């Protein structure tokens, strides 16, 4: 049988030229017969200097193939599922001897465990880069996001901050150093954005874990490597409840579009969130004199808590709805935006509030309502919280208390409407 040889320096003791001959005994393992085991392993210097074409063996079936052109490539002879195979491990110009040995050992270990380096290599070629993985995750989650703005921000923030670093990198090889490189430049100056970027990177990497492409999420413990940021709690700027009636008067007297004024008035009267009001549809409103009276049922997909919410409509709120019929344009939206059929922008209502001289947030009117309910009525905190569609945080209490307190809220919202009509009127306190 032909044996590979490579020349070595003459022995000092014998003075004769000696060839290093590959042993035909074979590597360990019953399936690796006649894979050469050299008496002396290769050295990095030998790999660099060797010029003659041939095959120079190391261990674990690894050998250096030198082509007549002078190019050098690492190859491993290995038995996979009973079949003798030669695997290319890369060029010697790029892959060092220690790296080639590591790859050869990993392949041997994989085969001993019943795996196949060939299948693993093919599977690795199917793993997406981070940018493509992020787009796949975004496409998968987009239908479940309530707010289209959040869906857009998911991919835009990753595109801005993550893609320049790891966009083209395999999602399987991203590590904590990559995440640190992405977050470090923005962690102090844009901490809220950086925090969301970290969460979104984690979402993509968790998806990669589910695909079997990786086993860990390096975003979980990365905060320990970043400086501590003291974040202040920014509450929505609210108007004192005594001033809300005057604010409503200015809203009605403003030169804004009728639907904008009516939407803002309806928001204040119902203590609802901006998105709930701007997306309100005629099909959600019932003004018939049924057992519940006039009611607006906000569907779960537009509620923060993800469940349907019944809103009792006061006489003032009903008047707004009836007035809105004259300006809605016949579409399904009660308060459409300037483009027919399109939802009004949140900025539209905020702009109106600022233009009439009130530097407050639209969301802050919910705080005004809450303060009024606590200070000027005898309704329980539970009733006003239900009016705001806040969920009960205590799970045990929530399990037993399943009432939405609708009857009590009917009275509370009617009193709020009357208060806004005349903020100086006496509020009747009803024991609840």
Please, could you describe this protein's structure?
- The protein is of the alpha+beta class and about 425 residues long.
- It folds into 3 domains: about 5-125, 2-Layer Sandwich (Double Stranded RNA Binding Domain), CATH 3.30.160.390; about 130-225, DNA polymerase, domain 1, CATH 1.10.150.130; about 240-420, hpI Integrase, Chain A (Orthogonal Bundle).
- Helix content is about 45%, strand content about 10%.
- It contains 16 helices and 9 strands.
- It has a 4-stranded antiparallel sheet, with helices on one face.
- The chain is elongated.
- The protein starts with a strand and ends in an 11-residue tail after the last helix.
- Mean pLDDT is about 80; it is low at about 1-35, about 395-400 and about 425-430.
SSE blueprint:
Blueprint: E1 5-7, E2 19-21, H1 44-49, E3 54-57, E4 62-66, E5 72-80, E6 83-91, H2 97-112, H3 117-124, H4 130-141, H5 148-166, H6 176-187, H7 191-210, H8 241-253, H9 258-270, H10 274-278, E7 285-286, E8 295-298, E9 309-312, H11 315-324, H12 346-355, H13 364-376, H14 381-387, H15 395-400, H16 406-421
Antiparallel strand pairs: 1-2, 3-4, 4-5, 5-6, 7-8, 8-9
Helix pairs in contact: 4-5, 4-7, 5-6, 5-7, 6-7, 9-11, 14-16
């Amino acid at each position: 049988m032909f044996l590979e040889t490579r020349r070595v320096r003459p022995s000092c003791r014998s003075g004769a030229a000696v060839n290093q001959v590959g042993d035909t005994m074979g590597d360990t393992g019953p399936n690796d017969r006649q894979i050469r085991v050299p008496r002396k392993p290769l050295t990095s210097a030998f790999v660099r200097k060797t010029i003659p074409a041939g095959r120079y063996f190391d261990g674990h079936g690894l050998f250096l193939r030198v082509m007549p052109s002078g190019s050098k490539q690492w190859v491993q002879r290995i038995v996979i599922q009973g079949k003798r195979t030669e695997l290319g491990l890369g060029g010697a110009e790029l892959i060092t001897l220690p790296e080639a040995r590591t790859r050869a050992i990993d392949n041997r270990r994989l085969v001993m465990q019943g795996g196949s380096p060939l299948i693993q290599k093919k599977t690795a070629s199917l793993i997406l880069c981070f940018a493509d993985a992020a787009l796949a995750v975004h496409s998968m989650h987009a239908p479940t996001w309530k707010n289209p703005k959040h869906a857009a921000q998911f991919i835009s923030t990753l595109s801005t901050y993550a893609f320049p670093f790891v966009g083209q990198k395999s999602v399987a090889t991203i590590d904590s150093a990559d995440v640190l490189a992405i977050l470090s430049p923005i962690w102090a100056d844009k901490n809220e954005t950086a925090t969301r970027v970290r969460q979104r990177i984690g979402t993509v990497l968790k998806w990669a874990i589910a695909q079997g492409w990786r086993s860990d999420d390096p975003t979980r413990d990365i905060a320990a490597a970043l400086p501590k940021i003291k974040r202040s709690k920014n509450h929505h700027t609210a108007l004192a409840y005594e001033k809300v009636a005057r604010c409503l008067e200015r809203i009605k007297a403003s030169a804004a579009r009728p639907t904008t004024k009516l939407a803002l008035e309806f928001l204040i009267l119902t203590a609802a969130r901006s998105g709930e009001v701007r997306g309100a549809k005629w099909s959600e409103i019932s003004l018939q004199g049924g057992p519940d009276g006039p009611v607006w049922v906000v569907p779960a997909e537009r509620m923060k808590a993800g469940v349907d919410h019944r809103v009792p409509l006061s006489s003032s709120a009903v008047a707004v709805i009836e007035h809105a019929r004259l300006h809605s344009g016949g579409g399904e939206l009660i308060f459409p935006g300037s483009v027919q059929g399109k939802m009004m922008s949140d900025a539209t209502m905020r702009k109106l509030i600022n233009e009439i001289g009130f530097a407050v947030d639209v969301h802050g009117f919910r705080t005004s309502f809450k303060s009024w309910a606590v200070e000027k009525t005898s309704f329980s905190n539970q009733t006003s919280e239900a009016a705001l569609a806040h969920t009960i945080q205590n799970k045990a209490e929530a399990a037993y208390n399943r009432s939405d307190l609708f009857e009590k809220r009917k009275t509370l919202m009617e009193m709020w409407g009357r208060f806004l009509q005349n903020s100086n009127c006496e509020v009747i306190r009803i024991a609840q």
